[in-house]
């Protein structure tokens, strides 16, 4: 019986990859500067971040990074790593590549942490990413949404762009043995950053009462279609490090 060859290979980012990845996005009209990936690689060398490239039959298809010391206030200093900047080029979507990249990031996170976090935008460009994370067991952290790494208060008007983020977490170990993320992080359950009861309005309504705010979310930093040769033979993160950037309803 002939074993089918797996065309997908994941490996750490290399210094020569920075220009190749940047060019892959430039070819589809998306600006992702070389310095962004050079920074990722430098942080990888300093053990601040881990980064993986996905190669499909030797051609660059996507990447993901895992930041060990994220600046998002909900988890900063709590020992919870954050998956950041997950991208799969449209030409390679619907091949399971996003899931494979997440598998690798979660496996690495599990060696040092009981939970892993991810931030996801809220506008339609993130619809596919939102579904993927929900299917993998990610849930909102219950602390609200942030804009430019600052919690948005009820009734506040903010721009609907990539900076408006909903933060999710996933338990990497059995929840009963580890407790909830709120318990682990010392966050009172059913509370918001502003101190109101869960489900209540900012005017101090009881739990379960309605709120006047409706959220909507963001994403324009992600990659588009196209590919560039990345066969291995040629060629921290808070602000400035995109979260997930999957701009397709069928990215996986």
Shape: globular
The CATH class label is Alpha Beta
What count of domains describes the coordinates? Answer: 1
- Determine Rg (CA atoms, Å): 19 Å
Q: How much is the average pLDDT? A: 78
How many helices does DSSP assign? 6
Tell me what you see in this structure.
The chain is α+β, with helices and mostly antiparallel strands and 252 residues long. Helix content is 21%, strand content 23%. The longest helix is centred in the middle third of the chain and has 14 residues. The chain is globular. The C terminus is likely disordered.
Give structural attributes.
Aminopeptidase, nine-stranded mixed β-sheet, 9 strands, 252 residues, disordered C terminus, alpha+beta
How are the SSEs ordered, and which strands pair?
Layout: E1 8-12, H1 17-26, H2 34-45, E2 49-56, E3 59-67, E4 82-88, H3 97-110, E5 115-121, H4 127-135, E6 139-147, E7 150-151, E8 164-171, H5 175-178, H6 181-185, E9 228-229
Parallel strand pairs: 4-5
Antiparallel strand pairs: 1-2, 2-3, 3-4, 3-9, 5-8, 6-7, 6-8
Helix pairs in contact: 1-2
Short description:
With 252 residues, the protein is of the alpha+beta class.
């Amino acid at each position: 019986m002939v074993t089918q060859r797996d065309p997908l290979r994941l490996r750490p980012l290399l210094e020569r990859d920075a220009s190749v990845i940047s060019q892959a996005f430039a070819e589809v009209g998306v600006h992702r500067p070389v310095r962004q990936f050079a920074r990722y690689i430098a942080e990888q060398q300093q053990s601040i971040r881990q980064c993986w490239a996905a190669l499909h039959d030797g051609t660059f298809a996507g990447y993901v990074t895992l930041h060990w010391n994220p600046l998002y206030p909900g988890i900063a200093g709590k020992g919870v790593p954050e998956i950041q900047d997950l991208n799969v080029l449209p030409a390679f979507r619907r091949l399971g590549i996003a899931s494979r990249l997440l598998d690798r990031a979660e496996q690495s996170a599990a060696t040092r942490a009981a939970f892993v976090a991810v931030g996801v935008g809220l506008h339609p460009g993130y619809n596919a990413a939102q579904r993927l994370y929900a299917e993998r067991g990610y849930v909102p952290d219950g602390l609200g949404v942030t804009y430019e790494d600052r919690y948005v208060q009820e009734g506040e008007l903010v721009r609907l762009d990539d900076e408006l983020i909903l933060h999710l977490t996933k338990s990497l170990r059995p929840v009963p043995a580890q407790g909830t993320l709120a318990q682990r992080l010392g966050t009172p359950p059913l509370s918001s950053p502003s101190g109101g009861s869960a489900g209540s309005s900012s005017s101090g309504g009881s739990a379960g009462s309605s709120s006047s705010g409706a959220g909507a979310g963001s994403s324009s930093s992600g990659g588009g279609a196209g590919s560039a040769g990345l066969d291995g033979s040629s060629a921290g993160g808070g602000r400035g490090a995109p979260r997930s950037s999957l701009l397709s309803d069928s990215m996986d």
